[in-house]
Amino acid sequence: MTRVEVVIVGAGFAGLGMAMALRRAGRDDFVVLERAASVGGTWRDNTYPGVACDVPSHLYGFADRPNPDWSGTYAHGDEIRTYLERIVETDDLGSRLRLGTAMLGAEWDAAAELWHLETSSGTMTADALVLACGRLTEPAIPDIPGLETFPGPMFHSSRWDHDTDLAGARIAVIGTGASAVQLVPELARTADVTLFQRTPAWIVPRGGEAYSAADRRRFADHPDELARLRSALYVEGEARFASRSGDAAASRDAQATALAHLESQVPDPALRAALTPDYAFGCKRVLLSDDFYPALASGSVALEASALAAVEGSTVVAASGTRYEVDALVLATGFASTRQPYAQLVRGESGTLADHWSTGMTSFASTAVSGFPNLFILDGPNAALGHSSSVLMIEEQVAYVQRCLEHRDRLGGALRVDPAAEAAYTDEIAAAAASTPWMTGGCRNWYVDERSGRLTLLWPGTVDAFRERLARADGSEFGFAPVPGARRGTA
Fold this sequence. Notes:
The structure is a single chain. By secondary structure, the protein is an alpha/beta fold. The chain folds into two domains: 2-138 and 336-478, FAD/NAD(P)-binding domain; 147-202 and 247-331, 3-Layer(bba) Sandwich (FAD/NAD(P)-binding domain), CATH 3.50.50.60. It is built from 14 helices and 18 strands. The protein has helices at 13-24, 42-45, 77-90, 178-187, 213-221, 223-245, 248-265, 269-274, 292-297, 353-356, 390-411, 419-433, 437-440, 463-471; strands spanning 2-9, 30-34, 97-99, 103-109, 114-119, 122-131, 154-156, 170-174, 192-196, 203-204, 287-288, 301-304, 308-312, 315-318, 323-325, 328-331, 346-347, 375-377. Helix 4 links the parallel strand 8 (170-174) and strand 9. Helix 1 crosses helix 11 and helix 11 (390-411) packs parallel to helix 14 (463-471). It is globular and about 65 Å long. It starts with a strand and ends in a 20-residue tail after the last helix.
């Protein structure tokens, strides 16, 4: 049986970010478990046509590992995967990776104050367990009558079948979220696409530019210039929070921008009406695209403005009653976001994480969970953003985990979150979210858990506010005396 100080589960941005931080702190007794054969997380799994980041590339990376070689304002998916692979090399993390190794179960041993893990490669124990499994890893497959009867190629957008030639095919794409907005224009170049839209999205111009070889050389030769660009992008991102969270003036301006974008690209009033949301700006994820509307306006994509209701062999039936004969089905239907699949595998002091989260995810500092000593979750409860880079949040969580491990070193014993501290943090989140479009905007979104109606995915504030909140975590959440000089206050 292998014994290490820290086991990290997942080798995407969160897992590698945690590994980098442990290495910098001189904590070399750790391993990173990754069920896949390579690193990259989301950017390994999603390889559909047109996949790219909708956050500026120079903000979508680790602060101390800038990449001067991004090809443009918005990086393509394969570039981001390559960036993460390079991190493994530059930070010498390869020896700590356990690729092709899935966590099958983890259980807290109260007597030994250790985590016991069952993996696909054997058993191990760890003093601390860091779950960096991602929140968008398991495809959400809709429960559609007859879906299993479809005889042709059918796959989720995050499990793209590159062996299937879709040129000239009649393709039904189900969903109009972030993935669909990127892949539909690409498919429409060579195929006959019908897009099933349950709910239209708010879409704003993407813009951006390609970086020339000279630009990339300048970024490499002048890191101060790259740092200034990242700083400016950070400020722009923080400013977007106002329009996403319901500030009246900012939301009004952003909505006007989106409607003007729609009107300029879709001249047909009937099609434009079908693509106009009837809910508050920001209630769902705001999308960026310059080519989605033109694809629909050109006639190369047929919009079915209702959900997929049934499948009868090669015939797909819309909720409107319209029937379509298709050759292939692409499910751009999102992920199991509010019910994290790993939760049922982790057993703490009195049940599984899935039991603890039976009415929605809760935590302290979006990272630690009562009843699960020495357990830390990255990119989990209330750690997502609707306005800027998720990597910024991951870096703040990693810094918090580092401080927690230092508490443990100094004071000894397991780190047990006070249930009252978790409850108070959950109440803070609810109070901050109560008046936002995510809760009151008249839409159904993947940020809110349908079981409790609580906002469980998004952090209802800026990155600055998250940093400030975690800075006030002084150890008292674990029952320790406050650290001298720690910042205090309420959220």
